[in-house]
Design a protein that fits this description.
Strand content: 15-25%
Helix content: 25-40%
Number of domains: 2
CATH superfamily of the largest domain: P-loop containing nucleotide triphosphate hydrolases
Number of helices: 14
CATH architecture of the largest domain: 3-Layer(aba) Sandwich
């Protein structure tokens, strides 16, 4: 007999899997350390089975939205250990669901093996911090760790705008307002405009996904607030290009100036399969030094990689440097590191050198 939805979610928690996938035509699958596995003993899912699972976890309003829009983001409280961020969607006319496990315990920056410089980001009073990288590579967890450090140490008002809410923050020194799309607000731009009237000190934007969100985020940062946000980009230079290119051409010079004034850092990350199991973070750190601000303002993003490479003494690092260090420390296999590298030849050179 097939597992019910609660049993499948419990298995995801028990196996410490990051994701659970229910797709008609395949058995249920879980992702562990970045790799998908079919759930042992489970049969191929049918439309009827997935529909039954959805009816157990969605209310009537959500089922209606799914029927009309063909997809829906939602969050699911499951147990004392974890909750789930989920997306129900339609493929080839049939229902599917992807669940992302969100633990209730928010890990600390050091526990996540993230660089010490992230602690300094939590002490800033204003500016824009962007955390970037592919889906499933730790952006949300990294942001949560920084927000919770602020929560622990500063008496401020933190507002989060998410779709859906992921980590749940328990107020400590700070007060925290967590707003979820559809449940608490109707749009990103409206929520961000409203945030300016809600006496915030820190604003977390779940994802800067379009022109209106990015424009609003820059405005919030420009008006003296500390803003954290994510983008699905692979490097600091690509991040700058993405932010600028979303605007009409006649506005781009103004946006370059605005971005150069408010940006504090871009932290681009990957989670890389470890030799001993699990995953290690590899990352690129770009800090908004005078040279970086000038490159952004002048539209010379092609210079950013070389500026990062020659600014290690102030805390900047490129992805290949951190991948090379993981290889030299015996934590990650060379072939795995190469698959994540943006410049494999540079990675090989760094592994062979004594400078890492």
């Amino acid at each position: 007999m097939s597992m019910n939805i609660n049993q499948l979610l419990q298995l995801t928690v028990d196996r410490n899997a990051s994701d659970l996938h229910l797709v008609v035509g395949t058995p249920p699958c879980i992702r562990i350390d970045g790799i998908l596995y079919s759930v042992p003993g489970e049969e191929v899912l049918t439309t009827e089975i997935v529909d039954e699972h959805l009816k157990k976890i969605l209310n009537a309003e959500q089922l209606g939205r799914l029927s009309v829009n063909k997809e829906i983001d939602f969050s699911l409280h499951f147990s004392q250990k974890a909750r789930f961020r989920a997306n129900a969607y339609t493929q080839r006319g049939r229902p599917s669901v992807a669940f992302r496990m969100i633990p209730y315990e928010i890990p600390a920056i050091d526990k996540l093996e993230l660089p010490k410089i992230l602690h300094s980001f939590t002490n800033l009073r204003q500016g824009l911090i962007l955390v970037t990288g592919p889906t499933g590579h730790g952006k949300s967890t990294t942001l949560a760790a920084m927000i919770d450090e602020i929560n622990a140490n500063r008496a401020v008002h933190i507002i989060t705008i998410e779709d859906p809410i992921e980590f749940i923050f328990k107020p400590r020194q700070a007060i925290i307002s967590q707003r979820e799309m559809h449940n608490d607000t109707h749009s990103w731009s409206t929520a961000l405009r409203s945030a300016l009237r809600e006496d915030p000190d820190v604003v977390l934007i779940g994802e800067m996904r379009d022109y209106e969100t990015i424009a609003s985020a820059l405005t919030v940062a420009e008006t003296g607030h500390l803003v954290f946000a994510t983008l699905h980009t692979n490097s600091a230079a690509q991040t700058i290009d993405r932010v600028v290119d979303v605007f009409p051409e006649d506005q781009q010079d103004q946006v370059k100036l605005q971005l150069s004034n408010v940006l504090e850092a871009v932290f681009s990350m990957r989670l890389v399969l470890a030799v001993a199991g699990g995953r290690h973070p590899a990352y690129e750190i770009m800090l908004a030094t005078t040279a970086i601000k000038t490159a952004i303002r002048d539209g010379k993003t092609h210079q950013i990689d070389s500026i990062i490479q020659t600014s290690q003494e102030v805390g900047m690092l490129n992805l290949d440097y951190t991948l090379a260090k993981l290889v030299r420390d015996g934590k990650v296999a060379m072939e795995v590191a190469q698959s994540y590298s943006l410049r494999p030849e540079e990675l090989i050179r760094l592994v062979k050198s004594d400078k890492t």
